[in-house]
Write a structure and sequence with these properties.
20 strands, six-stranded mixed β-sheet, globular, single chain, alpha/beta, Restriction Endonuclease
Length: 691
């Protein structure tokens, strides 16, 4: 493990804490939680440091929690922060996990609610967990221990247990594992399914195709009970990450599936479309009696996630319910580990093409993300005060891009140059991009639901806007959203230093997004016809003092609103996710200091900038279309030319500009060729990343 990567991790924690040792543990939790989310190991974690004494003076500690509606699981975040290199022993691990699970147990039996100060955050969360468990809303618990130390070699695993009457699994993420998770090729390859656990010979299957050895396919009929057992063991980690995001955002229970399981289980196989799945390897047994799948590694369900979750939900809804005799048809595609990420996404896209899952919901290859990536590599931000060089804001549309690009620079000197050109502090993931846009877009309740949830909503909105007019996503748009990122992050750092926050810390992310949204709405109402001047922020690469001062005033009001004793929902984190919470905050009387007028621009000037940006983008679209078609490889054009369904015009253009090579098409000809490339990608003739 690189010492530089470890130093970078520790520096990230210090930056997150805004230089305050008082908040270093919470900063450690936020950094690790963010990295776990980036690695698609957890979704929408709420970081809230809770500490109290339980029965017989037992020390109880919880760093955060997350709820996954897809598999009805609760993630508990336990932690052991050293602040320096240290070894996490088995005793340390058990102690930290015991403190976290102890909090849940003492919440479930009502002890915390009866013995804690009713106004404390610990009592608030204890009451929330107690009600969730009492309502049978949690089917499994996943206790995740994070540590900045190194796990002792003597720790092999922590055995599963039962906490508050619920099956619980345990995981440990130390510095080595959290850094490894940042690698772009890290997937769910540790998920290994051994079918001989249920079936002595394995799962019977048919070999569906081996024409392409990297995409060997098999067909099987999987007993529903086995599917549910596997889902109970591994939860939503089995679901391809984009499909999981879709289900989490849209709801998981399909009533038709529930009715079929209840009223006509013998017809389930006939009625249901089944599963499309992928794996990185498969262990087969070819015997005289046929072919059997003994085990698979890196299993992902890329279509049929709702079927899986719905069957599991059906069984949980009643002890007398059974799925004996119910089976699900399954297609298994085996992909090369080196190509797993791209192929799995492609299989997921085409497998879901007839469902209500848009390309924007699912894929980082949507043209919007491609354009943001291109703009981020081309545009340079003005040098900050005191710096002598310009830098770029790196839009990361796929996990690990920044790390990959840095590593590709080869030697240490070139890598340092890359870090100066694109500082890691100026890396923006696509989920963060959505968070910044919606924080200013007056949707703080959606932002409060978590990164993946807000991205799912944002992606659909952007997809619709893209189809309407893609020229609105131009240089001006990019610079404006970067300025929103600057506003969000500078406000977050400033809030951490405020006395009113230090006196009652917590709910930082909610406070910041609510403050930005209310600041935006207050400008609209208080200064009719004026707009906030984001171009000024871009030019300075920082907020002005007047803006930050005004935002902090609003942030203090946001904290008071979110934690108001008269709020209709006891749990602040859950209250912040409600539309009603934003509606109420948006109507509280407020007035911005007149000093903010200097940070505004007229609506006319803002509209002119938008119009100019669209005109510029319309011209850029033509140039980029030419560049993209000329960059397409000969083998791609050859595959298209040999495919069916080309019009005479398309065939002539491919021969003239694709197969001939070297010739430059006009903008109109390039546009036709781009549409052809997109169509052939949708047909599966070529890959989405081939152009």
């Amino acid at each position: 493990m690189s010492d530089d990567l470890l130093a970078e991790l520790r520096n990230e924690i210090k930056i997150e804490a805004a230089g305050s040792t008082d908040f270093e543990v919470e900063a450690f939790a936020r950094v690790f939680a963010r990295r776990l989310e980036d690695a698609e190991q957890v979704f929408d974690l709420n970081v809230e440091a809770l500490q109290c004494r339980g029965p017989r003076g037992k020390r109880l500690e919880l760093l955060g929690y997350g709820e996954d509606a897809t598999d009805e699981s609760l993630t508990l975040l336990a932690g052991r922060f050293f602040g320096s290199d240290a070894t996490l022993t088995l005793t340390d691990a058990r102690d930290a996990l015991s403190r976290a699970t102890g909090f849940l147990e003492s919440a479930a039996d009502g002890w915390l609610s009866e013995n804690l100060e009713i106004s404390s955050r610990e009592a608030e969360y204890a009451d929330y967990f107690r009600r969730q468990i009492a309502q049978n809303s949690i089917s499994k618990i996943r206790a995740v221990l994070i540590t900045d130390g190194l796990m002792s070699d003597r720790i092999r695993s922590v055995e599963n247990d039962v906490v508050a009457g619920i099956k619980t699994t345990f995981e440990i993420w130390d510095q080595r594992r959290i850094l490894d998770a940042a690698k772009p090729d890290t997937r769910s390859e540790d998920i290994e399914i051994d079918f001989t656990r249920w079936l002595p010979h394995g799962l019977p299957c048919l070999i569906a195709g081996e024409g392409d050895s990297s995409l060997a396919s098999y067909l099987a009929v999987l007993p529903a009970k086995i599917l549910v057992d596997i889902f109970e063991d591994h939860g939503s980690l089995l679901l391809e990450s984009n499909v999981r995001t879709f289900l989490s955002a849209r709801g998981l229970v399909n009533r038709g599936i529930q009715e079929t399981l209840r009223d006509a289980p013998d017809r389930f196989l006939a009625y249901n479309n089944g599963l499309t799945t992928t794996a990185v390897s498969v262990d087969l047994d070819d015997a005289r009696r046929g072919t059997y799948i003994k085990s698979i590694r890196g299993w992902q369900i890329v279509n049929g996630g709702q079927t899986t979750a719905s069957i599991a939900h059906f069984l949980r809804a009643g002890r007398d319910r059974k799925v004996d005799g119910v089976s699900v048809q399954m297609k298994l595609v085996v992909v090369d580990p080196s190509e797993a990420s791209g192929v799995v996404h492609a299989v997921a896209k085409y497998a879901n093409s007839q469902n209500k899952v848009s390309g924007a919901d699912l894929f980082s290859t949507h043209d919007f993300h491609v354009r943001m990536e291109q703009l981020s590599r081309r545009l340079r931000a003005p040098a900050r005060e005191g710096q002598q060089y310009q830098s770029g804001w790196y839009y990361e549309r796929a996990r690990g891009q920044w790390e990959n690009d840095r590593a590709a620079r080869g030697n240490a000197s070139d890598q340092k140059k890359f870090e100066l050109e694109y500082p890691k502090s100026q890396r923006i993931t696509k989920t963060d991009w959505a968070k910044y846009a919606y924080s200013w877009g007056k949707k703080p309740h959606l932002v409060s639901k978590g990164a993946q949830s807000v991205f799912a909503d944002y992606a659909v909105a952007v997809d619709n806007q893209w189809e309407s007019d893609d020229t609105q996503f131009n240089d001006t748009y990019f610079r404006t959203n970067v300025a929103k990122a600057i506003m969000f992050e500078e406000l977050r750092s400033a809030v951490l230093k405020e006395e009113w926050y230090r006196a009652a810390p917590g709910y930082l992310a909610n406070i910041v997004t609510y403050a930005m949204s209310r600041f935006a709405s207050q400008i609209d109402s208080q200064y009719s016809g004026a707009k906030f001047d984001f171009d000024r922020v871009w030019q300075r690469q920082t907020l002005g003092d007047d803006t930050l001062r005004a935002l902090l005033e609003v942030a203090m009001r946001a904290q008071s609103h979110l934690t108001d004793n008269n709020r209709p929902q006891a749990n602040v984190t859950q209250w912040a996710k409600q539309q009603a919470c934003w509606d109420r905050f948006s109507k509280i009387p407020m007035h911005l200091d007149n000093s903010i007028e200097g940070q505004l621009t007229t609506a006319e000037d803002a509209q002119l900038a938008v119009i100019d940006g669209r005109k510029e983008r319309a011209m850029d679209n033509g140039f980029e279309a030419i560049q993209r078609t000329m960059a397409v490889g000969d083998s791609v054009w050859d595959a298209i030319f040999r495919s069916t369904g080309l019009s005479p015009t398309e065939s002539d253009l491919v021969k003239a500009f694709g197969l001939a090579g070297g010739k430059v098409p006009t903008e109109r000809q390039a546009a036709v060729l781009l549409r052809l490339l997109a169509r052939k990608a949708n047909e599966g003739v070529i890959g989405r990343d081939d152009y």
